[in-house]
C-alpha cells in the first residue's frame, strides 16, 4: 500500500517508520534471565537440556566431534566450496586493509604518548541457525577475528537433526582457523560463552546476530559483573531502498524481498519520488514473491513493508535518515549528491548493479550491521571490534619538570592532594639534583 509522505501528520510519519514489534513475548526478559541462571548453576547439563527442548536434538556432548566435522566436509559440493573461497578472499582483503596504525606522539618535549592496538584474546561467535543456517555469518565473524589475530575463536550454533552443523558452516569455520565449535544456540549458548561451562571456557567478547532470545541474552550478560563485552544490537534484518523514477522496479523488488525472506519480523521499505515506480514495484513484488521458496515468511514480513512516495529525492533522503536503516540501497541517477546527504545506514549499496546480497555474501564488506535505528549511533562490524586499544605514556625527568606545575594546579583545583603529591614528591627530589634532558 502506498503512503503519500506529505499527507501524514508528524505522528503518522513516525508510525509509518515504526519497526515490527521486536518481540511479542512480554516474558522474554524473565525467560532469558532464567536460562542464564540455569546455565550458571548446571553448566553443560542445562545446555544439553535446552538443546533438546528448543532445537529438538538430543546430544550426548556439546562439542562438535572431529568425526562429525570430517563427515560434513566430505559432503560439501565443489561449487559452494569455491564460492565460499571467493567470499573469504574478499572479506579477508577488505578487513586486512582496516588494520589500524599505532600512534606515537611527543605532545611536548619529554612527554611521549602512544596509542597501541592488540587483538582480543578469546571471542565467541554466534552463528544463527533457527530459521536458516548462515555460513556467510561464519565468514563475517571468523575472518575478521582471524585477521585481527584473536587467539581463541569459539563458534556456537544450534545443531541440525543430524547432531551436526551444515557442511558450509564447518568449511567456512575451518578456513577461518576456528577449531572450537559447540552445538548450542539461543540464549543458553550466549550464557555459556559469557559464564563458561564444563566444556566451554568463557570468552572476552560475544559477536553475532540472532533472534530476540539471542539479542536479549547478549544484552543481559553484558551487564553482569565481569561479564563479556558484546558487539552491537544486530536483530531482524531490514532494508530501505531509495529510488528515483528511473530505477528498475524488478531490481528494487528483488532487494526488498531478499531481506523480507530472512524472518517474519524483517522489514522492507521503499522511499521514492515516483508514484508510478511505487506501483510498478508493488506489482513486481507480488510477481517475485509467488515464486519464492520461503514465500510464507517473506509474505508475512511484507505486511510491514512500506511504499513511501515523497515530493522529491531530497525529501526521500530525509525519510531515509529518519529511519536509519541497516541496509540502504541507493538507486537514483545522481548518486554522488544523494550519498553526500545520506547520514545513517549500516551499509550502503550504490547503483543498479549493487544488490544487497553482494554485501550479505561476498563483496568483502561485513554483513553484521546495527538494526532498529541503531545505525544512528553504532557502526557496522569491522576489524577494530575484535581489538582493543590502549595508551602508554613515558615522561622524562625534564618532561615532568615542565609539565608538573600544570598537573599540580589541576590536582589542587580538584582538591586531590595525593595526585598533587605524586608530582610534587618527584619534583622535590629532581630539583635537589641536576636537571636532566
Ligand atoms: N543484523 C544482522 O547483521 C543479521 C545478520 C544475519 C541474520 N540476522 C537475523 O538473525 C535472526 C536469526 O534468527 P533465527 O531464529 O533464525 O536463529 P537463532 O540461532 O538466532 O535462534 C534459534 C535459537 O533460538 C532459541 N529459541 C527458539 N525458540 C525459543 C523459545 N520459545 N524459547 C527460548 N529459546 C528459543 C533456540 O535455542 C534456538 O536454537 C534473524 O532475525 C535474521 O534476520 C541479522
Ligand atoms: N542480510 C543479513 C544481515 O542482515 C545477512 C545475511 C546472511 N545471509 C544472507 N543474508
Ligand atoms: Zn540477507
Please, could you describe this protein's structure?
By secondary structure, the protein is of the alpha/beta class. It folds into three domains: 2-22 and 235-364, 3-Layer(aba) Sandwich (Rossmann fold), CATH 3.40.50.1980; 28-99 and 126-234, Nitrogenase molybdenum iron protein domain (Rossmann fold, 3-Layer(aba) Sandwich), CATH 3.40.50.1980; 396-432, Single alpha-helices involved in coiled-coils or other helix-helix interfaces, CATH 1.20.5.1300. It has 16 helices and 14 strands. The protein has a six-stranded parallel sheet with strand order 1-11-10-9-12-13, sandwiched between helices. Strands 6-5-4-7-8 form a five-stranded parallel sheet, sandwiched between helices. Strand 12, helix 13 (335-341) and strand 13 (347-350) form a beta-alpha-beta unit. The longest helix has 28 residues, at 28-55. The chain is globular and about 90 Å long. The model has no long low-confidence stretch (mean pLDDT 95). The site of zinc ion has 5 residues, from helix 9.
Condensed summary:
With 437 residues, the chain is α/β, with parallel strands linked by helices. The chain has helices at residues 10-16, 28-55, 66-74, 78-96, 135-148, 167-175, 186-195, 212-222, 249-260, 275-289, 295-301, 313-323, 335-341, 356-361, 397-413, 417-432, and strands at residues 2-4, 103-108, 111-119, 122-126, 152-157, 180-183, 205-207, 229-230, 238-243, 267-272, 306-309, 327-331, 347-350, 387-395.
Amino acid at each position: 500500500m502506498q503512503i503519500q509522505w506529505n499527507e501524514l501528520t508528524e505522528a503518522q510519519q513516525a508510525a509509518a517508520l515504526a519497526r515490527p514489534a521486536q518481540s511479542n513475548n512480554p516474558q522474554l526478559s524473565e525467560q532469558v534471565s532464567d536460562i542464564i541462571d540455569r546455565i550458571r548453576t548446571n553448566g553443560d547439563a542445562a545446555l544439553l537440556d535446552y538443546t533438546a527442548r528448543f532445537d529438538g536434538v538430543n546430544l550426548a556432548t556439546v562439542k562438535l566431534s572431529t568425526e562429525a566435522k570430517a563427515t560434513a566436509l566430505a559432503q560439501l559440493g565443489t561449487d559452494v566450496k569455491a564460492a565460499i573461497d571467493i567470499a573469504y578472499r574478499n572479506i579477508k582483503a577488505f578487513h586486512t586493509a582496516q588494520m589500524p596504525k599505532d600512534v606515537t606522539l611527543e605532545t611536548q618535549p619529554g612527554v611521549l604518548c602512544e596509542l597501541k592496538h592488540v587483538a582480543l584474546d578469546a571471542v565467541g561467535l554466534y552463528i544463527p541457525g533457527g530459521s536458516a543456517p548462515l555460513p556467510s555469518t561464519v565468514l563475517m565473524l571468523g575472518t575478521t577475528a582471524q585477521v585481527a589475530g584473536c587467539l581463541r575463536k569459539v563458534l556456537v550454533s544450534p545443531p541440525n537433526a543430524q547432531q551436526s552443523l551444515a557442511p558450509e558452516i564447518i568449511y567456512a569455520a575451518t578456513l577461518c582457523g576456528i577449531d572450537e565449535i559447540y552445538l548450542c544456540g539461543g540464549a543458553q549458548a550466549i550464557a555459556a560463552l559469557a559464564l563458561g561451562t564444563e566444556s566451554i571456557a568463557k570468552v572476552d567478547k560475544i559477536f553475532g546476530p540472532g533472534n530476540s532470545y539471542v539479542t536479549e541474552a547478549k544484552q543481559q550478560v553484558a551487564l553482569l559483573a565481569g561479564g563479556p563485552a558484546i558487539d552491537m544490537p544486530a536483530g531482524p534484518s531490514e532494508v530501505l531502498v531509495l529510488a528515483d523514477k528511473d530505477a528498475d522496479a524488478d531490481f528494487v523488488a528483488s532487494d526488498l524481498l531478499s531481506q523480507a525472506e530472512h524472518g517474519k519480523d524483517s522489514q522492507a521499505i521503499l522511499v521514492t519520488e515516483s508514484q508510478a515506480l511505487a506501483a510498478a514495484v508493488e506489482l513486481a513484488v507480488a510477481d517475485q514473491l509467488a515464486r519464492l521458496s520461503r514465500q510464507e515468511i517473506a509474505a508475512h514480513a511484507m505486511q510491514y513493508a512500506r511504499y513511501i512516495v515523497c515530493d522529491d529525492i531530497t525529501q526521500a533522503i530525509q525519510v531515509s535518515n529518519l529511519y536509519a536503516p541497516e541496509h540502504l540501497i541507493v538507486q537514483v541517477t545522481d548518486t554522488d549528491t544523494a550519498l553526500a546527504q545520506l547520514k545513517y545506514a549500516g551499509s550502503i549499496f550504490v547503483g543498479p548493479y549493487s544488490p544487497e546480497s553482494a554485501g550479505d555474501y561476498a563483496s568483502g564488506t561485513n554483513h553484521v550491521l546495527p538494526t532498529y535505528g541503531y545505525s544512528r549511533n553504532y557502526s557496522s562490524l569491522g576489524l577494530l571490534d575484535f581489538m582493543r586499544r590502549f595508551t602508554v605514556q613515558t615522561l622524562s625527568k625534564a618532561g615532568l619538570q615542565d609539565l608538573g606545575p600544570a598537573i599540580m594546579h589541576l590536582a589542587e583545583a580538584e582538591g586531590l592532594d595525593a595526585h598533587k603529591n605524586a608530582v610534587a614528591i618527584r619534583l622535590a627530589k629532581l630539583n635537589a639534583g641536576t636537571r636532566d634532558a
